[in-house]
Amino acid sequence: MPEIFASGLRRAGWLAGLPALALTWASATLYAAPQIAERIEAAGAPVAAGTDTGTGEPWLRLEARGRDLLAAGEAPDVGVRDTVLTRLAALDGPRRIVSAVGLVETAAPFQWAAIRTGPDRIALEGSRPVEIGRRVLEARVTGALSPGTNLDDTARAARGAPPDFPSAAAFLAARLSGLTKGSRASLSDTVLSLSGEAVDVPAYEALRAALSDPPEGYSIGRVEILPPLVAQYRFAVEKTARGIVLDGFAPAASDLEAARREAQEAAVGTGGQVEDRLLLGRGLDPAIDPKGLIAYAFRLADLIQTGRIAFADGTISMTGDAIDGQAIPDAQALMRDARPAGVKAGAVALTARPLSPYRVTIRRTADAVTLSGHVPDARTRERILEALKPRLFREPVIDRTRLAEGAPPDLGEALAAAIPLVTGLADGAVTVSDRALTLTGESLYRESAARVPDRLAGALPPGWTGRAAVSARQPAERRDPETCRAEGAAAVAGASLRFPAGSTALTPSFYPTLDTLAALAKACPTLRLTVSGPADPAKAAPTPAAGPTPGEEAHPAAAEHAQVASAAKADVPAKADVPAKADVPAKADAPAKADAPAKADAPAKPVPSDQTAASGKPASAGGAAPGRKDAAGTGAARGDPPKKEAGKRDAVKKEPTGHGKAAAKKPADAPEEPPQDLPRLRAQAVVEYLLQAGARPDQVAPGPDGPAGPVAFALLP
Questions:
Q1: What is the pLDDT of residues 54-88, one digit of tens each?
Q2: What is this structure's pTM?
Q3: Which segments show compositional bias classed as Low complexity (predicted)?
Q4: Which of 180, 472, 604, 635 has the highest CB neighbour number within 10 Å of its CB?
């Protein structure tokens, strides 16, 4: 055996010594190396202890790596660093000194960050205040984290930290508790930022709440937190007797706001409230547009009185009571033909029941008037539209009503009574629920808003109850008299408002100045103003009073003031279009009276038709008496010959007179001369505009007639 053993050792050679060598190396590594490292660190400990700068802990950190000694930290200056490295080099234990010692610098901006690198690990980087010891700051940060979380701190001491830095660092670290791996919380001077993904819905909601209350002196900067990924994505719209309930998830904040906006609009029609249970959560199929899904769900919800529209597992379904019998096939058609891409059709379980309560709404905005709800028949619908349209200037009427039984018998009468009130508001709505009518909105004027409740109570049919909640859009502005007078003088000094020749119609150039004066009058109760209308220039070719030009129709008050001017002008007697000639032979069926001879060489004076009809007396010489016809066979006394008789008059005038003289010629289409009181009519048109725009009657009045030129304004004392 000894011979065999010896022979085996000879064949193995030096390999036989490897196990013994490995054992020796392991012993040295496991037992001797730690002892050597401890001795090296212990040798450098006095040097590190001498680097305390008043923070309670030394800035020098030593770590033994084998027989090498690693020195790290931030020295106050170069001299201190060199002194410390020299002392370390003089130690007997370390084989060599590896220096990672830096210098304390001023960081601008001062930046610090905490990064989640694992479920129970946080890395700190950037700069930390030199005034605060590393261990003190780490203890503050660790206290804000979940128990058992470890820190990897590589932050370097620097000057320039913002006030109360430890509180901001702890606030940011605490936010990382609800975020997944890779999330980052950072500070740049006094601005706090966050990025990452929430671990679940409660953590996301808690994070949103916490960000609304940052530490004092700090603000929230960029926040890029993804909502959590939910296992089962769902979305639901429920209609109840109390209003709208939103439930489920929305992928982004913009989708959340879109759903809430749709719910608010739907709740207005029912008079209910919105209960919001929506949460932010991801998990919707990328092929489905979230906003399209939300809009589609509310389209279906419009067809139910009460019930639920639910989306889950990629399928949308609806249950509940339909708004009317027509809604069931409408819902089936929407489910079949109008689903968003990626959405599957689910069940449509609707029942048709009598409407309770019976609702209809008329909503007025600056852009349109919208009818929604139900009416009993087409006749009631037409009655409502006929009452609306004459009261609107240019706003379109959008009819979204549906036919359904069960309406109060006098529904049309009640709505017709409320229409003048709602159309007189700047913004508002009339809502009917059975026999209860509610009027809400805003009026441009406080006085009008105060009169609405009494007018509504007196207009409703018997058996109806009415409630009005109308407020003034803006509180009355008041300015001191000196400012009012200065602004009024500036407004009229720069005004150059000119009427077209012979016209009393305001042109678009009037509106900016008049609107400014009206607004000033409302803010200045003591302001008094007179308006002097101008005459036309002498020898100017008369032009007929023109209606509003196309440009005038763009102003909301143009049509109304054109009517005012026309009505004022109608009060002035008009001249006859064609004066009658005494030497023109009358037709046989209309002989002239013997006691009314006409002059042979001069046209008769025209007699205004309204004066002739009012007095019942014959016209002056050359004019036709009441009931008589002139030579052309028309009622000249009325001043309104038909156009097709114009040719006959011209033919008669071209014939020679009985005295052998040629009759004076006058074209049938000669323009009408402007009235003699044209300045007064022009001043009245301007005054009416200012009154309609908000000025009080005691603030604006016509002044003396002015000469040719622009409209003249005068401020009274």
A1: 676 787 888 778 778 888 877 778 888 888 888 88
A2: 0.48
A3: 535-571, 599-623, 697-717
A4: 604
